[in-house]
């Protein structure tokens, strides 16, 4: 009998322990994968910014190589100021001779500034001074890049400074050959650089950290992101203490866990289709405000995803998944259906109100979502001007391919806005070649207004460019009164951001615009 109990107890014990061990293994693996995925996203963003800054500095140096004016002449400095004004990452330009900055757009007169810092010549032939100090800001390190006597000045903080979840997360931007650190944020161990093969994407780990490298061979730079393993695994010991008493329950739930895990592993295409079918995707509206009157004149429709568990999935995550899986056009049509269902009530509450819809680059095709919107809009006999369609610079890389969709939008009276303007490398000629009505100033430029930071001249340049092209402007991400004052003083009429209102459901939007509409009607009836 004793042997019988032993024989029976062993399978029962295993049945209790196996789910615990399996759950801990899965938790350990998922914690590692989540941390590496997070580090990869950070490294990708640092690399994207690094590539953009390098492309802008190389383009500026190429432009100066073609400039016929003598170095340090007024005409040469004027041309440099023009190039700085149209570049997000460049703080200044100048001329270098024998390791000395002989003039620049940031220094006065003809003061000679010997260049300090870590000096090297990259494999692409650009002389580089990392951490150079300039007289006007001796406490701020600058990176200076020179070729053929021309120099570009970049504050490295604009590339590397970004929010992270924990102060122990480390970021870095490297020159690949010769290997040198351009800028670091957080506790970055210099020995980690040697773990990466130049120009290669990789992920490694040592005893204490997970480390991710992302590289661009064409631009001779690489990004690094690292985090302590303890950040990922810190909760596993507590989890083990909780799971141990629940072994018997866990064994009974083993089959259910397999089903949940299988479902979790479904492809993004299946999960997103299921989310639409279960109505987990929903729309919030963020008001667009007239800065002169304070009234809500429109709203941007923002797609959100709340799983049945109550967990909110970040939009950047599932929109990217939808684009990668090739079903973003289905999701765009889903958004259009919801907005068209809401529009009659919105227009009844506030005539002249408009709703803006975001379009993916994949939506700008012949017989795509915009043409679907056109057919539905005509069938509903909606008034012109009720919709604004927001496209990105990425979506207009091939203007001719996008033109049929833009023309379809025009035929229903929809206005066209260029979203996140300034974060790419658009030119004046590009803006003149496409038929748009509005530029939306990205929140990255608005955030620096009123802050104690190096402010890029791009914000003012965008406003002046819009005035020259007779385009409307909408500022995104407005959060302070200083920003409102800055924008209103420069003629920007509309804005959106948390200072005015967060994104909200339809019933809250209606509750907000009805009193405003009544007030506007009362003012019109009273007359001057």
Features of this protein?
528 residues; alpha+beta; TIM Barrel; 23% strand; globular; 2 domains
In short:
The protein is an alpha+beta fold. Helices cover 43% and strands 23% of the residues.
Please characterize this protein's 3D structure.
The structure is a single chain. With 528 residues, the chain is α+β, with helices and mostly antiparallel strands. The chain folds into 2 domains: 1-265, no CATH class; 268-526, EAL domain (TIM Barrel). 43% of the residues lie in helices and 23% in strands. The protein has 17 helices and 21 strands. Helix 11 packs parallel to helix 12 (399-411). It is globular and about 70 Å long. Mean pLDDT is 82; it is low at 1-8 and 257-265.
Q: Number of domains in the coordinates? A: 2
Instruction: Specify the structural class.
Output: alpha+beta
Number of helices: 17
The spatial strand order of the largest sheet comes to 13-14-16-17-18-19-20-21
| Mean pLDDT across all amino acids | 82
Into which percentage range does the β-strand content fall?
A: 15-25%
**Main pleated sheet:** 8 strands, mixed, barrel
Question: How helix-rich are the residues, as a percent range?
Answer: 40-55%
Low-confidence stretches: 1-8, 257-265
Radius of gyration: 28 Å
Net shape: globular
Alpha-carbon distance between the two ends: 102 Å
Tally the beta strands: 21
